[in-house]
User: Which sequence fits this backbone?
């Protein structure tokens, strides 16, 4: 089990009580956590946790090596790309369920209920289509398909996990806590956000520019 937990962390997974309860319980125990960190340390990794201890994940101990700095930058760019659609989805679920507080780890969403509420509200339909555009450049017009695409992507991002396969009932994972912390970091470092957004936009434009001038 300790090896499995270490491998999950090295793959960049977030360990929480929803996704992998056994590994999560292990990491709450100081002795087991120390054993996992002993495995990670030679690989320049350590265990970090969200402020509410909702999720554990691996971070670098040192960024002296250029390849480690490059990996951190790549991970940050990935998070930045996911950030907007994830936040839009959270707001959509909040509006559809008339909640006035953010979705937290353990909160549930049922695809059928969300679809029904979005279908019966033009404002929510417009928001769902906006999220679909962020995630998928191929436009979809039917709300059930749009909601399915969005939810499946949230599962891929590790924001949601299906309770029982096939039920299409999902639980928000501990990674949502990490997303909120990234937002707080961005709010405190607005210059970094602006630079990263500019770099991401330039990277997205490069293939198009190359195509324009290719023979």
Assistant:
């Amino acid at each position: 089990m300790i090896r499995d937990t270490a491998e999950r962390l090295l793959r960049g997974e977030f360990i929480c009580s929803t996704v992998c309860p056994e590994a999560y319980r292990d990491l709450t125990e100081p002795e087991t956590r120390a054993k996992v960190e002993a495995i990670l340390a030679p690989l320049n990794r350590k265990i970090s946790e969200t402020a509410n201890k909702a999720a554990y994940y691996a971070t670098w101990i040192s960024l002296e090596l250029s390849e480690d700095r490059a990996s951190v930058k790549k991970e940050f760019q990935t998070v930045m790309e996911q950030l907007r659609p994830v936040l839009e989805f959270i707001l959509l679920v909040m509006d559809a369920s008339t909640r006035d507080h953010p979705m937290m780890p353990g909160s549930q969403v049922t695809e059928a209920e969300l679809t029904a509420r979005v279908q019966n509200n033009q404002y929510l339909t417009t928001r769902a289509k906006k999220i679909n555009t962020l995630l998928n450049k191929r436009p979809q017009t039917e709300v059930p398909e749009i909601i399915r695409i969005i939810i499946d992507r949230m599962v891929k991002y590790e924001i949601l996990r299906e309770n029982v396969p096939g039920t299409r009932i999902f639980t928000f994972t501990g990674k949502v806590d990490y997303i909120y912390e990234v937002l707080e970091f961005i709010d405190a470092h607005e210059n970094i956000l602006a630079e990263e957004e500019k770099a991401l936009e330039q990277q997205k434009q490069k293939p198009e520019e190359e195509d324009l001038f290719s023979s």
